[in-house]
Amino acid sequence: MCSPGEAPPGPAPAGDLPPEWETDDERMAFLFSAFKQSREVNSTEWDSKMAFWVGLVLARGRRRGAVRTCLRELQNGFERRGSVPLGLGTVLRELLRRGKLQRESDFMASVDSSWISWGVGVFILKPLKWTLSSVLGDSKIPEEEEVLIYVELLQEKAEEVYRLYQNSALSSHPVVALSELRSLCAGLCPDERTFYLLLLQLQKEKRVTILEQNGEKIVKFARGLHAKVSPMNDVDIGVYQLMQSEQLLSQKVESLSQEAEKCKEDARSACRAGKKQLALRCLKSKRRTERRIEELHSKLDAVQGILDRIYASQTDQMVFNAYQAGVGALKLSMKDVTVERAENLVDQIQELCDTQDEVAQTLAGVGINGLETDTEELEKELDSLLQDSSKDSVDLPPVPQKVLSPPISDAELEAELEKLSVSDGDLAQKTPSASSEPKTALGLNL
């Protein structure tokens, strides 16, 4: 069977199937029929049927959360009214070609054999089916019980295992027992075979490495989500052994503490019953147990001290590596920088700044007509104009202070005119050469 030790699942629930599954018999009859030998016969029908089954097969695997499947399991899951899809083999071959599915044997063969030597008792590394599939390629339709793997789902679940470990108390040290890791992933991996497949995927990604030590398999994880795991060395094994010793000592101390408490209770019971000798033996046993507990406590403190120093040294090594990388980067960045070149560069910058200031001043002193003007001279000229304007004030006649005489009457005007006429006559006699026209005119005007 494709899933050893597991009963093949029954038909898929109605809610997991498309609407036409129960309503459109004609459409389902077409989909349950076998594919044509060649896609060229009717490419539209061929592509339509392939798209339907490809989506259904991938959705079924993701919905079930199982990374493994086989042709028989899918036929049982998609059974409809006693009929099974006749083209599922062609669909699986197409999924193999696209890389959505992979044969389990091919997947194991793609991992370095030195990385999966620990799993010889779990997997058959190169079965006959793998040999045939390697020779024939993906063009061969999978057999009914040949195990296939959902590639994307396997990668996603392997990532979940890695994150689960990182968020657990086991991540305090990169090395952990395989049995402890299996217990941690019990809810994620329904069976042991799936658990090993997920570990193989992590090994393929170089994120874990596995080693067998004294009959027990231990796993080393990479430090960091995107880091690659380093080979397991003596330090890793030594730290793991110290951690195991710490765990055993703690368990032993707890067990002895319970034993000492029991001896104390037995001594009390013996005293109540009047069995003095029995009570003394219980107290002696209690004393011996307490001395053993003290000895184990001192050993446990020593082991924990060593572990603390190892963790501190690892931190120091990380800091040292960071400093070393920083020094190397700083050397590269300062490779062409010297004090002399820096001073020369500063001088060049200052010289260029001075030149720019001179150019700006020159450009700012150019007028609209292209004539240079001196602001200071203009200000001096303006001051002189202001001083001249204050000196050259207009001299106006003084305002008359006398009161104007009252208006002259007509009689007074005629008398004044008479005097003027007499004066004019005398003047005319004194100057005979003058013309008489002015007199006539004067007399007319008057």
TrEMBL record:
InterPro entries on file: CHMP7_WHD, Snf7_fam
PANTHER family noted in UniProt: CHARGED MULTIVESICULAR BODY PROTEIN (PTHR22761), CHARGED MULTIVESICULAR BODY PROTEIN 7 (PTHR22761:SF21)
UniProt key word Protein transport: yes
Family: Belongs to the SNF7 family.
Pfam families attached to this UniProt entry: Snf7, WHD_CHMP7, WHD_CHMP7_1st
Record protein name field: Charged multivesicular body protein 7
Coiled-coil regions, chain positions: 246-306
Gene transcribed to yield this protein: Chmp7
CHMP7 winged helix domain ranges (all copies): 154-222
Record's GO cellular component terms: cytoplasmic side of plasma membrane; ESCRT III complex; multivesicular body; nuclear envelope
Native species: Falcunculus frontatus
GO biological process: late endosome to vacuole transport via multivesicular body sorting pathway; protein transport; vesicle budding from membrane
UniProt main location, coarse: cytoplasm
Keywords attached to this entry: Coiled coil, Cytoplasm, Nucleus, Protein transport, Transport
Record carries keyword Nucleus: yes
Subcellular location: Cytoplasm; Nucleus envelope
Region listing for Disordered, in residue ranges: 1-20, 387-407, 422-446
